[in-house]
Amino acid sequence: MEVFSDVGMWLRWIHFVAGITWIGLLWYFNFINGPFTGSLEADVRSKVIPQLMPRALWWFRWGAAFTWLSGTVYAYGFIAPQNPGGTMNWITENMRGQWLTMGFVYGTIMAFNVWFVIWPRQQKIIRAIQSGNAPDPAWGKTATNASRINTYLSVPLLFAMGAGKHMGEFAEDLPTDFLVPAALVTVVGMAFAWLCIHKIGPVAGKDFK
Description:
By secondary structure, the protein is mainly alpha-helical. It has one domain (2-200). The protein has helices at residues 7-38, 42-79, 87-92, 95-130, 137-163, 167-172, 179-200. It starts with 6 loop residues before the first helix and ends in a 9-residue tail after the last helix. The relative contact order is 0.11.
């Protein structure tokens, strides 16, 4: 069947599934797990983290890797070459290409943070706890800061990826070029993520009866 040979469809499917895994865990860590583990006693935390985090971080980092790889191949190896003006024209002039490239830039920053900032520090934290030692607070602070950056970027990234195909007609009604709406989406998206982390997350579900 033709559907099984549709490379673009399979790349999109991998991208969606991996992205749901990655961003879902990212939001879980920042909106739920952070307030939860912070409320635990030290002896309980020392039992929970070595059991929970290695499993969660495995799905987290490989979700990031497959999201980035499948998205990059789909956008720049499959869609962009089909643009009549070529790949660079698609990136700089085509509205869909501009939005997807914005998402690619944010996604690249986020994937880098996962593999080269968050995961190495979390490894140190888990190993220290497993050996009965106190982790260096700097490890957790660095990992948390990188994770927060990723959460702030994730909202405008999702808008850029989801809206990219549909922004052409919308952009025709705007009195400006791509940069202004992109900046607006970024600022509003980051503000929403900040609200979820600092205001909604710490109190969500606490009054459940």
